[in-house]
Design a protein that fits this description.
With 249 residues, the chain is of the alpha/beta class. It is 33% helix and 20% strand. The chain has one domain: Rossmann fold, CATH 3.40.50.150.
């Protein structure tokens, strides 16, 4: 059986994100009409190259633009905690792969992505799935959603916070961030199934039964409509959001 991560197996430069994430994104975008697309953070440019091959007009943003390796694609310095150097409503698509969790201000980052996105335009965001049942159980046992980092780790990373997961965003916080920036979730995709998640299925069943027996007010308050979705609670390590910016009236 072919592995879903083999897209980059024979390349010397390994991408910062898993190949399976890129495969899901390029597969989805291959069915969409072309347009102008912002890829940030772009990393070494693996995804940017494939999107250009699909016919998209790709512009890249990266906090370390010197690491970008693809010739023929513009890559500008971009600190997503601050601003994107582009005019309002200038892109048909924005793509942020494994970026928001590295932000110290993810609210600002999504605000900027929304600002440069045209009304009716599409945003694609991939982020670690901090809301699946495995992560919830980890938090219950260990008290943290992700591996704790030390000051020594920070120094070894060049004292750059963007090398760490600073914002472990759960599904309800992400929904809020998208919502206040006029972005509506249209789909949640998974890069691959994580089979060991299903070991927790009895616990998930109990949680769903409790939600079913609760009042409508409680279900709305706790957002069981998204927290108990299969793609989320039984999802793998990554969630890929397809969001659309509302059209002006």
């Amino acid at each position: 059986m072919t592995r879903v991560d083999n897209i980059y197996d024979n390349q010397k430069i390994v991408p910062k994100a898993r190949g399976s994430i890129h495969q899901v994104i390029t597969s989805w975008l291959s069915t969409q009409p072309g347009g102008k697309l912002l890829d940030a953070p772009a990393g070494y440019g693996h995804l940017s190259m494939k999107l250009k091959e699909l016919g998209y007009e790709v512009i890249c943003g990266e906090i370390e633009p010197e690491i970008f390796k693809v010739k023929g694609i513009e890559c500008i310095f971009t600190d997503l905690n601050r601003n994107i150097q582009a005019p309002d409503e200038s892109f048909d698509y924005v793509c942020c792969v494994d970026g928001l969790e590295h932000m110290t201000d993810p609210y600002r980052a999504v605000e900027e992505f929304s600002r440069v996105l045209k009304p009716g335009g599409v945003g694609i965001f991939s982020i670690p799935n901090y809301s699946n049942i495995e992560k919830r159980f980890r938090y219950f046992i260990k008290g943290s959603l992700t591996k704790p980092k030390t000051v020594e780790d920070y120094k070894k990373a060049g004292s750059n916070l963007f090398n760490f997961h600073n914002s472990p965003l759960t599904i309800t916080i992400l929904d809020l961030i998208f919502g206040i920036n006029d972005l509506k979730i249209e789909a949640i995709l998974r890069d691959k199934v994580k089979k060991k998640q299903y070991l927790f299925f009895p616990l998930v069943f109990v949680m769903r039964m409790a939600a079913f027996l609760s009042s409508d007010r409680s279900r709305r308050k706790n957002r069981y409509d998204i927290t108990l979705r299969d793609e989320v609670i039984l999802g793998g390590n990554t969630l890929i959001f397809i969001v659309r910016k509302s059209r002006k009236s």
